[in-house]
UniProtKB/TrEMBL annotation:
Highest classification ranks of the organism: Bacteria, Pseudomonadati, Verrucomicrobiota, Opitutia, Opitutales
HAMAP family found in the cross-reference section: Asn_tRNA_synth (MF_00534)
Segments forming domain Aminoacyl-transfer RNA synthetases class-II family profile: 133-451
InterPro entries (alphabetical): Aa-tRNA-synt_II (IPR004364), aa-tRNA-synth_II (IPR006195), aa-tRNA-synth_II/BPL/LPL (IPR045864), Asn-tRNA-ligase (IPR004522), Asp/Asn-tRNA-synth_IIb (IPR002312), NA-bd_OB-fold (IPR012340), NA-bd_OB_tRNA (IPR004365)
Protein name: Asparagine--tRNA ligase
Length: 461
């Protein structure tokens, strides 16, 4: 007999003589002539109700089952007497696979997110985290589908790299040196030539530069993988290890890039809205009452588009006292981003054309010689979820940009080759996977949408 999932059992078209289902006990209640189990196997939010009659040979074992124990149940799928579900199982056999004692930390009562973070290995067994991680999986699938349906090629860019794409110095260094006793050069510095790769290497902050090489060959590409930032910021939207999706398109300009980002974000919302309906209802009930209305509202209308210069003027005119003052030439802080989307425009907002000084070397310089073709998509509740740009395709301008940013063109010879041989206008962006997941679930902390979060001081699992 092939086992079925709780989800398939609950969606069965008809009663069945025998089904086999594995799972974990959520609760047990005893009546006079039977024991009543709620079984969950993670396939869906709902539990399968199991009636285990007192006539079972191992009924005493069944009566000792506690929350968290694992069992295999064989029995009849019959119409449910109780409310809320169509089917339940009358057990003919309950095999206890693994017991769980009273120390099992996930008891029926609600737990705080902080406590659940301390049991990251068990929290996927809770309703909320089961729902979060099923949605995460579905969102990942939707991302591949979006690009594959549009003819994009999936590129695996390296995790270990020698380049610092964002130039922000937030790199995790990769080394096999014994750091207590590293090989020293004559000048006393660590000798990178003696390290594993015979040079200094890092965990990648972005696959963009490599994706550009592939876009300038295959036309439309995307990456989807882990990226790393050694930023020491303890906020609800920063992690040191997060996943990023980076489309890169040849023969595309800033306008096309903004259109793609908007279409992409909306398509992902639509996909989750249709295919994670049950989990989304849980989020709407327990995490964020406004969630469904907000997602539907976002789908209905175009994103607001506004230049950085206009955005600064609007923020200044607002008269609002921000913690960080609003100043042309400085980066928008999260409070500014949220104010734009939550108060000024009340919808997702794409800010473009930022001052060249505050953006990385690869962005295309505008004719005004002051701004670059950067674009950030900001959403209510979070702020930035997408960052991207048209890339500088002119060799001489790119080299000048690099020098201005203190980047030595000699270190990026391969990247400059893309401008030497058949250069083309091209553009792309990065969507923060976890931030998108926060947006579609309403979960307010990035630590709660990653299976095992990496944040400063936290790599316990
Ligand atoms: O704006 P960022 O730094 O852009 C890039 O890395 C570009 N190379 C992307 C490209 O053009 N191909 O990062 C892109 C997105 C941000 O908008 C944000 O959503 C997310 O990545 N992100 C983070 N998410 C979680 N934790 C962090 N520390 C993040 N840093 C960036
Ligand atoms: Mg950014």
């Amino acid at each position: 007999l092939k086992p079925t999932t709780v989800k398939d059992a609950l969606h069965s078209e008809s009663a069945q003589d025998t089904i086999l289902v594995h799972g974990w006990v959520r609760t047990r209640r005893d009546a006079k002539t039977f024991s009543f189990l709620e079984l969950n196997d993670g396939s869906c939010l709902k539990n399968l109700q199991v009636i285990a009659p007192a006539t079972l040979a191992n009924y005493t074992d069944v009566q000792h089952l506690t929350t968290g124990a694992s069992v295999t149940v064989r029995g009849k799928l019959v119409p449910s007497q109780g409310q809320g579900q169509k089917w339940e199982v009358t057990a003919e056999d309950v095999t206890v696979i693994g017991t769980a004692d009273a120390t099992y930390p996930l008891q029926k009562k609600g737990h705080t997110p902080e406590f659940l973070r301390e049991i990251a290995h068990l929290r996927p067994r809770s309703n909320l985290f089961g729902a979060v991680f099923r949605t995460r999986s579905r969102l990942a699938f939707a991302i591949h589908r979006f690009f594959q349906e549009r003819g994009f090629v999936y590129v695996h860019t390296p995790i270990i790299t020698g380049s610092d794409c964002e130039g922000a110095g937030e790199l995790f260094r990769v080394t096999t040196h014994d750091l207590a006793n590293p090989p020293k050069r004559e000048d006393g510095l660590i000798d990178d030539a003696k390290d594993f790769f015979a040079r200094r290497t890092y965990l990648t902050v972005s696959g963009q530069l490599e994706a550009e090489a592939f876009a300038c060959a295959l036309g439309k590409v995307y990456t989807f993988g882990p990226t790393f930032r050694a930023e020491n910021s303890n906020t609800s939207r920063h992690a040191n290890e997060f996943w990023m999706i980076e489309p890169e398109v040849a023969f595309c300009d800033l306008q096309g890039n903004m259109d793609l980002a908007e279409e992409f974000v909306k398509a992902l919302i639509r996909e989750v809205r249709t295919n994670c309906a049950e989990d989304l209802e849980l989020f709407a009930k327990f995490v964020d009452k406004e969630l469904l209305a907000r997602l539907d509202f976002v789908l209905e209308r175009p994103f607001q588009r506004v230049s950085y210069t206009e955005a600064i003027e609007l923020l200044k005119k607002s008269g609002k006292q921000f913690e960080y003052p609003v100043e042309y030439g400085t980066n928008l802080q999260s409070e500014h981003e949220r104010y734009l989307t939550e108060v000024v425009f009340k919808c997702p907002t794409t800010v473009y054309n930022y001052p060249k000084e505050i953006k990385p070397f690869y962005m295309r310089l505008n004719d005004d010689d002051k701004t670059v073709t950067a674009m950030d998509v900001l959403v209510p509740g979070i702020g930035e979820i997408v960052g991207g740009s048209q890339r500088e395709e002119r060799l001489d301008v790119l080299e000048a940009n690099m020098r201005r940013h203190g980047v030595d063109p000699k270190d990026y010879g391969w990247y400059l080759d893309l401008r030497r041989y058949g250069t083309v206008p091209h553009a792309g962006f990065g969507l923060g996977f976890e931030r998108m997941l926060m947006f579609v679930t309403g979960v307010p902390n990035i630590r709660d949408v990653i299976p095992f979060a990496r944040t400063p001081g936290n790599a316990a699992f």
